[in-house]
Amino acid sequence: MEIIGAQLINGLSYGLLLFIITCGLSLVFGILGVLNLSHGSLYMLGAYIAYSVTATFTQSFWLALIIAPIIVGVLALVVELSLLRPTYHLGHLSQVLLTFGFAYIIHDIAKLLWGSNVLSISVPAIFSGSVSVFGQSFPAYRLVVIVAGVMIAAILWLIQEKTKWGAIIRAGLSDKDMISALGVNIKVVFTAVFILGGVLAGLGGVVAAPILGIYPNMEFEILILSLVVLVIGGLGSISGTFIASILVGIAETFGRYLVPELSMFIIFALMAVILVFRPSGLLGKKVSEA
């Protein structure tokens, strides 16, 4: 029983880590309608930049936690202005191809700058210890990830559902012409949302680096899991992404513990079962309503 409890905590920690990584992708798709396949690359850059900050310039994890998301956010601004904005009228396929191609460009640049070795970042000293949970030692940093994931979910939900800014964003997605007629520059709003998505991806990279490590192809591995979370939760639903992240985290954790060879199969089987009963995802809108 103690082992099951410990695995649940591990799964919850991993699930909320997935949420921190994926929430930016969900936000951008839900509000802009853009499936950003370079999201994993922005996440990877956040991790690599954090490594450079902590290994080369300073030993401060906290400074990396600030600098890396800002740099990734600036890159997201460049991507939105130069690649995506000119293609909004062309449909989703061009955006998918552009962002996927950009992901490969970032992959090659990252290998050129940081090499192919596996890198790591140490957790802050204050969180380097362990806590006893269900009679077993549990890293304190993973508990911090759980708290951070819940806080980010609450903040995003409040912004999206309870603020004037969130109302403008949702209305802009439904009727751009109406919002523009009211004097709101919808292009600026969409750019701000894409920057926020990039900042969240970079933040996810920094937070995940001490746990998952930093290595080539990490962006594509996390992109696959992020897309699974996105589909299970419902495309563009922050609340659905939160629930789906926890489900996937727990499913993979128990899968790796019980049958390591089938851990990925379990995740995709979970997705298939949910889509059979909820084709639009747990909290996604029906196709006819989209």
TrEMBL record:
It comes from the Bacteria. The keyword Transmembrane helix applies. The chain crosses the membrane at residues 12-35, 61-83, 141-159, 188-215, 222-251, 257-277. The keyword Transmembrane applies. It is found in: Cell membrane. InterPro entries: ABC_transp_permease, BCAA_transport_permease. It holds the Pfam family BPD_transp_2. Keywords: Amino-acid transport, Cell membrane, Membrane, Transmembrane, Transmembrane helix, Transport. PANTHER family: ABC TRANSPORTER ATP-BINDING PROTEIN, BRANCHED-CHAIN AMINO ACID TRANSPORT SYSTEM PERMEASE PROTEIN LIVH. Belongs to the binding-protein-dependent transport system permease family. LivHM subfamily. This is Branched-chain amino acid ABC transporter permease.
